[in-house]
Amino acid sequence: MRRRAIPILVAAVALAGCGSGSKHAATTTAPPANAGFVLQPPAAAPSFRLRDQADRIVGPQDDRGHWTAVTFLYTNCPDVCPLIANQLAAAQRADPDLRVIAVSVDPKRDTRAAIRRFLAAHHTGPRFRFVRGDRAELRPVWAAYHVASLPGSSGTVSHSAVTLLVDPKGKERVLFDAQVTARQVLGAVTRLRS
Q: Among 31, 26, 22, 30, which residue's Cα sits nearest to residue 42?
């Protein structure tokens, strides 16, 4: 039942601006205005192994014991991705326990150098990892998180621009759309910690 409902929520949140969507629905509860969709019951976040900007192999399973935001971005994005990166970087500055893993949706152009420039431009810290790979490596990750990635016009990529908050036990807890803010992420972490 949960897996069949997931694409419905994704469609409801999907492809706004540069994108929006993920894998979650089962039962969702909308907390206070724009605070994301609480996922009930929490399920294990899919694991993956991809290389980050420092060429380390990482995945959400490596962040057990910490809150982790998993999101889907690309470095040449003209609109939504930079905003998401800025908000998640701000959330990390406010909460030293928060980790971020951004998964590339543009394997051709998201080179290690492009990712490093993007992260520097958005003042992210070392706990913000941007993972990449070729299409064959990324496609299973996109599928596991129900994320679409399609070539758009003028070199853009239409993609699901969601952020998933994963708890320290590796469970999916809250799904945010493309308008995610640092305040929303921090608020969700505070509520779920108590």
A: 26
CA distances (Å), origin 100, targets 31, 59, 67, 111: 22, 10, 9, 18
The fraction of the chain above a pLDDT of 90, given in percent, is: 73
CATH number of this structure's domain 2-193, picked from the four choices 3.40.50.720, 3.40.30.10, 1.10.443.10, 3.40.50.10540 = 3.40.30.10
Q: Residue 132: which of 73, 91, 77, 79 has the closest Cα?
A: 73
Alpha-carbon gap, residue 93 to 97, rounded angstroms? 10
User: Which of 79, 59, 47, 46 is CA-nearest to residue 131?
Assistant: 59
> Which among 50, 51, 53 has a CA at the least distance from the CA of 120?
53
φ, ψ for residue 97 (rounded to 5)? Answer: -85, -15
Domain positions in the chain are 2-193
Global pTM value: 0.84
**pLDDT at residue 60, rounded to an integer:** 96
Give the C-alpha separation, 3 to 52, whole Å.
29
Return the ∠ at Cα 186 (arms to 184 and 191), rounded to 5°: 95
Which tens digits make up the pLDDT trace of 145-176? 999 888 887 888 888 889 999 999 999 999 99
CB 108 within 8 A of CB 13: no
